[in-house]
Request: fold
Amino acid sequence: MKITSAEFVKSAFNRSHWVNDGRPEIAFLGRSNVGKSSLINSLLARRGLARTSNTPGRTQSINFFLINDGFYFADLPGYGYAKVSKTMRADWGKMAEEYLAKRDELALCIQLVDARHEPSKLDLQLNEWLEHYEKPHVVVATKSDKLSRTDLQRSLNVIKRTFAGVDVIAYSSQTAAGRDEVWSRILEAVGHRA
Reply:
């Protein structure tokens, strides 16, 4: 995929702030510290466009990025970070659920899970939301370069069993392994919406 332009457009803290021009959107969802910003930067071959942080739970808004003037990446707040207040965690859940339930422009959801760990209850809950709202989605297992080939295969088998019927793609933001496969899914999704 040739990226001719990629720009941060806005941070939305509630529905009235969402972008509103009808272009298709690709949503990135996952636990805090799962590597959403790193994945976005890797897909776009841009350093620092999506801001990474060593502090989980930093993203508290939906961040919209316009790609090739044709579609958006929507980076949703991470979930499950214990050091933020219960009220803030609940607000994030409401924001994400409202977006998933009511966003007509949503063409594909990319759910990130850490390849090094078994999916959590919150990962399962998000997958159930996606199924409930009948949203097209794929699971991307990040940080795949941190595992040996054997351990990665074992982990992918667990993830595939956990999310039965959902495509799972191993990805490394360090090596870009899996990049073409993720882009293939994105382009298929936005092509169907064009």
Remarks:
- Strands lie at 6-12, 25-30, 62-67, 71-75, 106-114, 137-142, 168-170.
- Residues 80 and 103 are 23 Å apart (CA to CA).
- Residues 53-58, 81-85 have pLDDT under 50 and may be disordered.
- The chain has five helices and seven strands.
